[in-house]
Design goal:
CATH topology of the largest domain: Peroxisomal Thiolase, Chain A, domain 1
Largest sheet: 10 strands, mixed
Distance between the termini: 21 Å
Radius of gyration: 20 Å
Strand order of the largest sheet: 5-4-6-8-1-9-15-14-10-11
CATH architecture of the largest domain: 3-Layer(aba) Sandwich
Strand content: 15-25%
Shape: globular
Number of helices: 14
CATH superfamily of the largest domain: Thiolase/Chalcone synthase
Number of domains: 2
Length: about 425
Amino acid sequence: MSGDLQDRNRVVITGVGLTAPNGDSLSEYRANLLAGKSGVVPFETRYVKQPVLAGVCNFDEFRYQKRKERRRGTRAGSVSIYCANEAIQDAGLDWGNVSKDRVGVYLGITEHGNVETENEIFEIAQFDYDTKVWSHHHNPRTVANNPAGEVTLNLKITGPHLTVGAACAAGNAGFIYGLQMLRLDEVDVAIAGGVSESIHTFGIFASFASQGALAWNEDASKASRPFDVNRNGIVVSEGGAICTLERLPDALARGAKIYGEIVGYAMNSDAADFVLPVASRQAECVRLALKRAGLTPDDIDIVSSHATATEQGDIEESRALKEVFGDRPSLAINNTKSFIGHAMGAAGALELMGNIPSFEDRVAHATINLDEQDPRCELRQIVANRPRHMEKVEYILNNSFGMLGINSVVIVKKFPQELGGVYA
């Protein structure tokens, strides 16, 4: 084995588990992205004028959990348990012989505990606010580490676990933490990614509505419209995408299939506003990820954009991408939120996973519902409405930005098939 392949700082993706509003496996999800199938549907939520639109997942909650365990836990926990188990199975890990104290769980979240708190306040109100009816499960359900902790309980993992509160940059942040813990030799396997249960709290819909940022369309499938001049806001979604990450020599030693290698990452802060993004800081984040990967902008084949279909968000990201990548026509820029809405803490992870199969089929999935591009989003490389066939896909760059001005970028490289890569 060459010295380069023995480098224990190299981290690869060896398993994928996910649930999205338009698919409960990577293959189903990818097929629906290429087919232009949306997962946005009408949805009822307490107190908010009915109906709202949301991205709703339909995975089997009881595939890896008993009903009693699910009742005690949370929706975010059930998403996490499903995705983590799927990722481990997909990775082909001999789980019975894996040292569980050398496994870590690192899950990005936007927020946690709102769903349970809202539900319990609603319940206590029916009993004149008598605290005797307050659930004794409230505290373990609402602590911030809950989703990752539920995974450790389910899979009997005794290594470290934590959730990464990074707003809508959290999916990328989960991958970054997992990679860093592998490089520090804290763990041998990192279960990493992002999850969200956001649609089960009425507060998120009410807040976006009061902000004038909640999307609506008579046709639910057309509601999420990033970069389009007629966009009118965010479609809130739930979901999760979790990967098994391993050091390259360990993955090669066990003959694991490899989806790709994480070669660059960065996080920074705008330090400017609670919600309004800053293009120059986003561009800095992209440049730092490229620098760490030893790449130039010309090396990137696909940029998975963060664009949420809010006016200022789309415009600022467009400026940042234009500043870094210019008008190079061979670059493809796409957007997954147009299909599934904004899955908050899961968004970055789901969006990256939706693009990973491009290493094999050399197709950049489209941005749907882009009928009239906002001239202020001046990006000629956006893949609009139909997938684009690419000459090559060697590097994918994934943008993920969040409130309070947190920015994250992850770059994944195609891994050679002859060395164990999944994609030719």
